[in-house]
Design brief:
This is Phosphohydrolase. The protein is mainly alpha-helical and 208 residues long. It has one domain. It has ten helices and two strands.
Length: 208
Amino acid sequence: MVDEELFEAWLDEELDPEAAWTGLTPGPSVDEVMSRISTTPSWFLDDAVDVVALAGDVFDTADGRPVAAARRVAATGKATARQGAGVVLWLVASQELAGPFSAALREDRLDRALVTMAMRLAAVVEAPRWVEEAERREEAARTFLLWSGQLPGREDERNARALLARLDSAARAEALERARRDREHRAEIRRRLEDARAREAASRYSPE
């Protein structure tokens, strides 16, 4: 089931999934990221977690793009979005708490990774499932790496694209949501045209 409000928030970010594939650099393997997701501490997933404060602690700053992204996540008012952000923040924090990845995570796109995981993926697959279910964990790991600007270790772009496409619940939901928006937009245009015609007819035949 899609959280339509959360997905709307993602669409409002106006991030292009195709553009996310540009400028990728080698990252850690999917298995590494999956393993780290599986160890997400429960308090990072607490419904009441303050993701803005948590982001400030993880990045050791009260500002910057990742913290601003966390503010936008918090503004959705959605617990599932906060949980999704919590997993991303754990992946970043875990480099110091649980050891480094084989390739360090890039920091220049982490704001996009945070909002994408929290609004796009969490809108269709709740974050606790990323921790508990292997297939959803792989989807989360691949989504995180892509939006962080990294190719999974030992994979080329062609393989990475094919494997993510096989798993990408959010892409399927996004296509449906965009189709719904297009339908609503066309219906609104038709309604306005009909209203304009009705007003024109009324003015033409009304007595002077």
